[in-house]
């Protein structure tokens, strides 16, 4: 097996294994080849990881923030130095083309580590004058944070959670998705090499049961989940029962609105990125493309022409633009949505079938004449399937864009900046783009509203989610007691 790690888990600075745990296989979905075989974490290993995190956290929190930042900087440098090997691993584990993983995965993780490394030493509290007395506030870490990841951006998700958690003095136990267990282990090794003390970043493999065990364990002070809405509901319920703070990065059905004055070539390019990058397996994708009726024919014509040129193939070949989906099972689910869309009357413009080659490949697919009530316009498909809807009026498109349980992201293409800001102001979404789509620099907070979740990753906003405020009242005179 060409990507077999030294062991399944990484606990307290070293590899850990318990072969009695259920088997997890990582499959390269371009070929069906099993690239690694691991075991789920047993209760004893979960215990060990949480105890190790708990034991290491207090000393880490007591260190000068600049010192914590220095270690994260070293980890970022190692990620960058090993970007190619990490990208190849991510490509094998996810099936995403190397063309993407080389620029979007470990590199984005390194960005997060650099950003929060620098941020750590800038964190301060407030002083609050109260006349004779005063108060001040401290920003304290939360303790042990549990991170639970999805399979589409494994190392990026691990870094987006670990970087702020560690920078602000917490420890982390991270459970990657059972579909993509490998890169979090590589990250753990890199942290150890960068000098992160043992126990501060632990990796446990497992399916939902291991995640659920973390969510309900009293040693875990905070949870951050990237996953689907149904999982989010379960994890939030478990955390709610224990009154634990959570960050929820969940799914979406985001609108991308193209007005009649938009630069059409840019709008087409953005719509393609918003539906076909990572074979459409991106939470913030603009999967409901609202095209103004006046530009719809030209939009569809240019879209179909450019989509026909997308090169699918071996994801390890850097020329490949489109890799397979994560698994055969997921491909079957996505093809089910395609069949449903046809049955409900949507017009297939291109794609709609698996590629004629081995592996879980699917042609980039565009449906036009999609209406709001169709399943394709309501449910998250998580595949390379774009739904194009028509609209006439600004008020109308805003109301329709908001008519969904989700609220992760939204985009607007127009040359009229007043309209762009007006529309964005009325869209119910946590992350928005004007004349761009799906760019998620670490400096910008990222997250959703409504069923797409709550809390934010990245940017200054992350401070709120990995620290708590302690208020200290400082009495500077006599105590004024009435008895
Ligand atoms: P998923 O919900 O099936 O699994 C996510 C993680 O939760 C996995 O690690 C899984 O093992 C774990 N899990 C499952 N049941 C659990 C439980 N009861 N308790 C604790 N943990 C549990 O999601 P997925 O299929 O891995 O990923 C795709 C989904 O993730 C999509 O809906 C996508 O939109 C979403 N996503 C969101 C973001 C974001 O930042 N908003 C980013 C990427 C993916």
What does this molecule look like?
- There is one protein chain.
- By secondary structure, this protein is of the alpha/beta class.
- Helix content is 39%, strand content 20%.
- The chain starts with 8 loop residues before the first strand and ends in a 9-residue tail after the last strand.
- The structure holds nicotinamide-adenine-dinucleotide.
- Nicotinamide-adenine-dinucleotide binds next to helix 8 and helix 9.
Describe the protein's topology.
Blueprint: E1 9-11, E2 14-16, E3 23-28, E4 33-39, H1 43-62, H2 65-81, H3 83-94, H4 98-104, H5 106-120, E5 127-130, E6 133-141, E7 144-148, H6 154-167, E8 171-175, H7 182-194, E9 201-203, H8 208-216, E10 220-226, H9 229-241, E11 246-249, E12 255-258, H10 264-276, E13 288-292, H11 296-307, H12 328-343, E14 347-350, E15 365-368, H13 375-378, E16 385-391, H14 394-402, E17 409-413, H15 417-426, E18 431-434, E19 453-454, H16 462-466, E20 467-474
Helix pairs in contact: 2-5, 2-7, 3-4, 4-5, 5-6, 6-7, 8-9, 10-11
The structure holds nicotinamide-adenine-dinucleotide (NAD).
The gist of it:
This protein is an alpha/beta fold and 483 residues long. It has helices at 43-62, 65-81, 83-94, 98-104, 106-120, 154-167, 182-194, 208-216, 229-241, 264-276, 296-307, 328-343, 375-378, 394-402, 417-426, 462-466; strands spanning 9-11, 14-16, 23-28, 33-39, 127-130, 133-141, 144-148, 171-175, 201-203, 220-226, 246-249, 255-258, 288-292, 347-350, 365-368, 385-391, 409-413, 431-434, 453-454, 467-474. A 7-stranded mixed β-sheet has the order 14-15-16-13-12-17-18, sandwiched between helices.
């Amino acid at each position: 097996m060409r990507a077999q790690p030294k062991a399944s888990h990484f606990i307290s600075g070293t590899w850990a294994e318990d072969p009695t745990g259920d088997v997890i296989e990582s499959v390269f979905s371009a070929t069906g080849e099993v690239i690694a075989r691991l075991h789920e974490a047993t209760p004893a290993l979960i215990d060990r990881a949480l105890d190790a995190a708990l034991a290491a956290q207090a000393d880490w929190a007591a260190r000068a923030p600049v010192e914590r930042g220095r270690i994260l900087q070293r980890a970022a440098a190692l990620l960058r130095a090993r970007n190619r090997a990490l990208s190849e691993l991510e490509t094998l584990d996810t099936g995403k083309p190397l063309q993407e993983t080389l620029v979007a995965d470990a590199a984005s993780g390194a960005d997060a580590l650099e950003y929060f490394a620098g941020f750590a030493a800038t964190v301060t509290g407030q002083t609050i004058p109260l006349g004779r007395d005063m108060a001040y506030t401290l920003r304290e870490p939360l303790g042990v944070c549990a991170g639970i990841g999805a399979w589409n951006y494994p190392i990026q998700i691990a870094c987006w959670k670990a970087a702020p958690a560690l920078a602000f003095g917490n420890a982390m136990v991270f459970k990657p998705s059972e579909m993509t267990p490998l890169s979090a282990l590589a990250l753990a090794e890199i942290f150890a090499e960068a000098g992160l003390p043992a126990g501060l970043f632990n990796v446990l493999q497992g399916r939902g049961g291991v995640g659920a065990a973390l969510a309900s364990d009293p040693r875990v002070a905070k949870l951050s989940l990237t996953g689907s809405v149904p999982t989010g509901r379960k994890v939030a319920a478990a955390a709610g029962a224990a009154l634990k703070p959570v960050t929820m990065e969940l799914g979406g059905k985001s609108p991308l609105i193209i007005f009649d004055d938009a630069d059409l070539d840019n709008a087409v390019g953005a719509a393609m990125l918003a539906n076909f990058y990572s074979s459409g397996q991106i939470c913030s994708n603009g999967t409901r493309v609202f095209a103004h009726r006046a530009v719809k024919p030209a939009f569809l014509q240019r879209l179909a022409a450019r989509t026909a040129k997308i090169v699918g193939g071996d994801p390890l070949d850097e020329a490949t633009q489109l890799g397979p989906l994560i698994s055969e099972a997921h491909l079957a689910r996505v093809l089910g949505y395609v069949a449903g869309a046809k049955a409900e009357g949507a017009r297939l413009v291109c794609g709609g079938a698996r590629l004629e080659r081995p592996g879980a490949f699917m042609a980039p697919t565009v449906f036009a004449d999609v209406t709001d009530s169709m399943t394709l316009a309501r449910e998250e498909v998580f595949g390379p399937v774009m739904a194009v809807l028509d609209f006439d009026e600004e008020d109308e498109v805003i109301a329709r864009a908001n008519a969904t349980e989700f609220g992760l992201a939204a985009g607007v293409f127009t040359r009229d900046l007043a309209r762009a800001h007006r529309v964005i102001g009325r869209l119910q979404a946590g992350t928005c783009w004007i004349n761009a789509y799906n760019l998620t620099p670490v400096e910008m907070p990222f997250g959703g509203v409504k069923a797409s979740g709550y809390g934010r990753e990245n940017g200054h906003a992350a401070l709120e989610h990995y620290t708590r405020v302690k208020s200290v009242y400082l009495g500077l005179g006599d105590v004024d007691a009435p008895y």
